[in-house]
Amino acid sequence: MSPTAAPDLALPQPPVREADATEKATLAVVALGLLALLVATSDANHDRARLLFYGALTLVSGGTLLWSWHKFGRGESGVKQNNLWLRASTSRGAIAWVTGLVLTGFYVVLYWFPQYLENLIRAADPLSQALRHKPADQWFVYGTFYTLAVLLMGGRALWKYRHSRYQVIRTLSVMFFQLGFAFILPGVLLFFQQPEYYFTYFWPLKYDYLFPNSVDYLVKDGQALGVFMVFWGVVMSFLATPVLTYFYGKRWYCSWVCGCGGLAETAGDPYRHLSDKRRVAWRWEVRIIYTVLALIILLTAMLWVVRYVPGGPLAGVADGLYRFYGFFIGSVFSGVIGVGFYPLMGSRVWCRFGCPMAAYLGLLQKHFSRFRITTNGGQCISCGNCSNVCEMGIDVKQYAQRGEPIIRASCVGCGMCSTACPRGVLNLENGPRAGRYTGSQLIHADSLRLLS
């Protein structure tokens, strides 16, 4: 090099690690399982389709768990976000777009063209009969896939974040509630000819549980269990939710119980860095999510008014709003976009922009809760790991650099920012509201430190 030439100061980028033979083999097993599932979908022979269906679930489950252990369970634990922006699957590349198209296509078929899933539905009949004592439908097949995704990718999360006790317990919690309360318990209720009920979903997320027709259905003939279900829904929506949010923030639900959050934290974990951190994204978030909350409050109120004042123009307006909300919010937004856009917009698209429960909890968290994330600006090295792993689009680094507590309505308290911090700058705390906005009073006795 000439003595007058400027030295090359660019730091070399680490190469993307090629998958070794074992990793390729485990991924091939998963791919073979998905292929078998596709064949089962188009196979008119029910016996063969059933064999392919359960064989596919076995291959996908075994391959995913082996791949997760090989990739995350053998070496040193920790938050490994290496090369995510260099891989086509996690940087909105070709693989990400294909994945997104497949997911959105599946949801479109599930909601509006279930006849194309008839072979899979019939293949799932034995499992449905054993659990629910009734034939399968597209929602049972979907629930099976959904639960399996949370469990398998939950296993991946347990290996990946095994160094953090908080993340391990939190992951086990969402796996438990999805399997026990969102899959097995509703099936058992149907088995004993009781109403299918999801005890972990409340109004306004499960909006129809407090609609007049649903209440009538649950309390028909004065069944004690149905009355309890209505009572449970009212208490959880209007009493337990504010109390729990006051003490723990919205994390008690969004990151520990909710099935939507459970899928985002497990199956959506590879995409958490894709959430838009720009201020313009935050503005759209506020506009959309509180509009959805206002719509469901208005719809619920209108339906109850129509219940006691039947007829008139309000009934037609309420019916139109009900259809609009069910189609655009309940189906398109929460399903097609909410999960299908994981590979393009991150894992919490629905939770961040559309979920009325998240909006309700967020208002309580921001204005009435003891919960905050405290920061120690003197220790921050501005590495950006915290912002990179925030799936809710919060630029955590900006708060950490200034030593300001993070009190945001959108924060779901997943704790990944603290888990990813190499300096222990961030801590989730439930201290008293005094000093909550200044960060000057840190109640370490009540704090929940995330780094073990």
From TrEMBL:
<feature type="transmembrane region" description="Helical">
    <location>
        <begin position="93"/>
        <end position="113"/>
    </location>
</feature>
<keyword id="KW-0411">Iron-sulfur</keyword>
<feature type="transmembrane region" description="Helical">
    <location>
        <begin position="51"/>
        <end position="72"/>
    </location>
</feature>
<keyword id="KW-0408">Iron</keyword>
<feature type="transmembrane region" description="Helical">
    <location>
        <begin position="224"/>
        <end position="247"/>
    </location>
</feature>
<keyword id="KW-0249">Electron transport</keyword>
<feature type="domain" description="4Fe-4S ferredoxin-type">
    <location>
        <begin position="403"/>
        <end position="431"/>
    </location>
</feature>
<feature type="transmembrane region" description="Helical">
    <location>
        <begin position="171"/>
        <end position="192"/>
    </location>
</feature>
<keyword id="KW-0479">Metal-binding</keyword>
<feature type="transmembrane region" description="Helical">
    <location>
        <begin position="288"/>
        <end position="310"/>
    </location>
</feature>
<protein>
    <submittedName>
        <fullName>4Fe-4S binding protein</fullName>
    </submittedName>
</protein>
<feature type="transmembrane region" description="Helical">
    <location>
        <begin position="322"/>
        <end position="344"/>
    </location>
</feature>
<dbReference type="Pfam" id="PF12801">
    <property type="entry name" value="Fer4_5"/>
</dbReference>
<dbReference type="GO" id="GO:0051539">
    <property type="term" value="F:4 iron, 4 sulfur cluster binding"/>
</dbReference>
<dbReference type="InterPro" id="IPR017900">
    <property type="entry name" value="4Fe4S_Fe_S_CS"/>
</dbReference>
<feature type="transmembrane region" description="Helical">
    <location>
        <begin position="139"/>
        <end position="159"/>
    </location>
</feature>
<keyword id="KW-0004">4Fe-4S</keyword>
<dbReference type="InterPro" id="IPR051684">
    <property type="entry name" value="Electron_Trans/Redox"/>
</dbReference>
<keyword id="KW-1133">Transmembrane helix</keyword>
<dbReference type="GO" id="GO:0046872">
    <property type="term" value="F:metal ion binding"/>
</dbReference>
<dbReference type="GO" id="GO:0005886">
    <property type="term" value="C:plasma membrane"/>
</dbReference>
<keyword id="KW-0472">Membrane</keyword>
<dbReference type="InterPro" id="IPR017896">
    <property type="entry name" value="4Fe4S_Fe-S-bd"/>
</dbReference>
<keyword id="KW-0812">Transmembrane</keyword>
<feature type="domain" description="4Fe-4S ferredoxin-type">
    <location>
        <begin position="371"/>
        <end position="399"/>
    </location>
</feature>
<keyword id="KW-0813">Transport</keyword>
<dbReference type="Pfam" id="PF13237">
    <property type="entry name" value="Fer4_10"/>
</dbReference>
